[in-house]
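[09:14] KT: can someone run the structure on this one? pasting the chain below
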Amino acid sequence: MLAKFNGDAMEQLPLIIFLMAACWMDLARQKIPNWLTLNFIILALAYHGVVNGDVAFALTGLVYSFLILFPFFVLRFLAGGDVKLGMAIATFTGWQIFLEGLLYGLIIGLPLVLLLAWRKVGWQGVKASFNRYVIILGSRRYLAPAKGELAGLKVPYGPALAMGAALAVILNEFQIFTLVS
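[09:31] RB: done, structure tokens below
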């Protein structure tokens, strides 16, 4: 078994509640607060220390997730809240399920981000971005996105990471499918 769960689906209840709260906050405020992620990391460390007697499992997830996600923060592909969300997920689920969830989150994220962005700027914003890219390719010069353009939006990625993690946990818990063994 990948994660150190005792086979009881109720063990994932804190994770599911955490993921729902993080999604809601990221969608409503475009921010995942530190108090939520850092407290969940502490909860996950305590859980694995008390229930499984294996804090190393949680710490390994925490360290691996940081090493994987921090470069994306430095390159500004992810915000700090997204990185801390991933670290909290990995601390609870372990690094293997975290990696699966990250992959699923990337797959889910593209259509989700496009849908959320479409809601904000509509067809005109998409068309403006497409036209700008055509001009960039033709002139080989960078043009900054204009206001109201799809490319200029900051769209929350926390929901995609949360859905990817939930999918990975469900698929592994019920032994439906696993990518990492």
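[09:33] KT: thanks! The chain is about 70% helix and 0% strand.
[09:34] RB: yep, looked fine to me
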